[in-house]
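Protocol step 4 of 5: obtain the predicted structure for the target chain.
Materials: sequence only (see below). No template structures provided, no constraints applied. The aim of this step is simply to have a reference model before the mutagenesis design in step 5. Sequence pasted as it appears in the construct record:
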Amino acid sequence: MSIPANNLYTKSHEWGRKEADGNIRVGISDFAQHALGDVVYVELPEVGTEVTQGEGFGTVESTKSTSDLNAPMSGKIVAVNSALESQPELVNSDPYGEGWMILIEPSDAAEAENLLNPAAYEAHSAAEAH
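Step 4 output (structure tokens):
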């Protein structure tokens, strides 16, 4: 299971990575995409939508189930990955790269303190897997 060191994570398996411009790129973790199985559809919000940390911003559907996507940070969505409309499988093949979902302009950078660092996320995922 891949857990990049430059990301922070939620207990519900979303990741957030601070970009050079201060925005937060968001997706689901390798653990989450593996647990879901083959992703067949991703529902994402419109650019300009305000999101709240820990609350839903969309859904991801797989051959096994449908899961809610929760925002790792509060703020305004400034970009969505439109490639997922026609290629939802990018979430499986490259969850930390081409399979990203949204870009958030954070409204409160201090919220990052509520997220898990890679070591804590690894422990959380390992406990959930057993």
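Step 4 remarks: The chain is about 20% helix and 30% strand. Strands lie at 8-9, 14-18, 24-28, 39-43, 50-51, 56-62, 66-70, 75-80, 102-106.
Proceed to step 5.
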